[in-house]
Amino acid sequence: MRPANIITSIADVLAGVAVAGYFTRSLSFNLTPVLLLCFSTACLYAGGIVFNDVFDVETDRIERPERILPSGQITVAGAALLGSLLLMAGIVSAAVCSLVSGAIALAIALAALLYDKWGKHHPWLGPLNMGVCRGLNLLLGLSIVTSALAQWGLIAFVPVIYIYSITMISRGEVSGGERKPLYVAMVLYLIVILSIAVLSYGKQQFLITILLLLVFGFMIFRPLIKAIGHPAGINIMRAVKAGVISLIIMDAAWATAFNALWAAAIICILLPLSFWLSRYFAVT
Question: What is the CATH number of the domain that holds 91?
Answer without folding.
Answer: 1.10.357.140
